[in-house]
Design goal:
The chain is an alpha/beta fold and 306 residues long. Helix content is 29%, strand content 20%. It has an eight-stranded mixed β-sheet, sandwiched between helices. The protein has a two-stranded antiparallel ribbon with strand order 1-2. Helix 2 packs across helix 3.
């Protein structure tokens, strides 16, 4: 039967090769396919085929805020077509942009983050053309896309005001960040201290094949970890952040491997850092409601409309 928003579903589900126990919380309830098509599709913000974005413009006679979506997929897969539920932003008078980016190649693991920063600059450069307010630009992402969204919100602004390229002069810092099931640290010792020894996710971000190699090469990787890990970059000047682990609770659901990759313990560790560093951060996971905001999308809407 059809369930209301906020309802939970739990049971055993049969897939091609296995039967697993899954637990879901309904975060939005709408007719599939009801979300609007893009106003502008596959606009290039760089020369690579993956450097493309879709623009969904809210109807307004005045400048609209904009929420920018970065898909998940471990920086190895996924697509901007994964966007769902953007009607809630458009209905609130907030335009939406979904971004594709280059996957992590072994010879250049930082291509993903540079693409996302460039996309933000490209959007701000074209803000007046698209009737957007460049000063009210929020970002959200899922999993790896959420991790890089946090990177944008915690990294110092990459704008180069003296650049001959007008796009490079634009700010890369978002107004606010909603991160859905993010990995909040890229330090292997910190990650396992927060989540547990079962965690094996992360070495591929640095072109490594195993977590053992990740741990063994931590000292050599320290400059990169400091440059790309949200936990290392977080300060009191970071953008306001909402971490939402949806239906994940402190006890893992089967299958456990997916749980540890998206464990809310990533959020607990990050929230403690935020408190120590006087950064604005909110956390939701099953069994724990965030202060003030009920969900990641309510947080974005309220922050962008104020």
């Amino acid at each position: 039967s059809v369930k209301d928003q906020g309802a939970t579903l739990e049971g055993r589900f049969a897939f091609a090769n296995e039967i697993v126990h899954l637990h879901f919380r309904i975060i939005d309830n709408y007719v599939y396919g009801a979300d609007p098509a893009p106003s502008l599709r596959n606009l290039p913000y760089g020369p690579n085929i993956r450097q493309r974005l879709d623009v969904y413009l809210a109807k307004s006679s005045t400048l609209t805020p904009v929420a920018v979506y970065f898909h998940g997929g471990a920086w190895l897969r996924g697509d901007k077509s994964d966007l769902r539920g953007h009607h809630r932003f458009l209905d609130a008078g907030i335009s939406v942009i979904a971004v594709d980016y280059r996957y992590i190649p072994s010879e250049n693991p930082d291509a993903t983050t540079h693409d996302m920063a460039r996309a933000i600059q490209f959007i701000r450069h074209h803000a007046s053309t698209w009737n957007l307010d460049p000063h009210r630009l929020g970002v959200w992402g899922v999993s790896a896309g959420a991790c890089t969204s946090l990177w944008l919100g915690t990294h110092p602004d990459l704008a180069d005001p003296t650049s001959p390229d007008p796009i490079s002069r634009q700010s890369t810092r978002p107004t606010c960040v909603s991160a859905i099931a993010p990995q909040t640290s890229l330090d292997p010792i910190q990650m396992r201290a927060w989540v547990g020894p079962q965690l094996i996710y992360g070495p591929h971000a640095f072109a490594l094949k195993s977590f053992a190699a990740f741990l063994a090469q931590r000292d050599q990787l320290r400059p990169w970890i400091n440059a790309y890990s949200p936990a290392a970059l977080l300060t009191k000047t970071s953008a306001p952040i909402f971490l939402d682990y949806l239906n994940f609770g402190l006890q893992p659901y089967d299958p456990a491997s997916g749980y540890y990759t998206h464990s809310p313990r990533f959020g607990i560790g990050f929230l403690e850092l935020a408190k120590k560093r006087n950064a604005e951060c909110y956390l939701h996971y099953e069994g724990h409601e965030a202060d003030r905001y009920t969900s990641w999308h309510q947080f974005l809407i309220e922050k962008l409309r104020n």
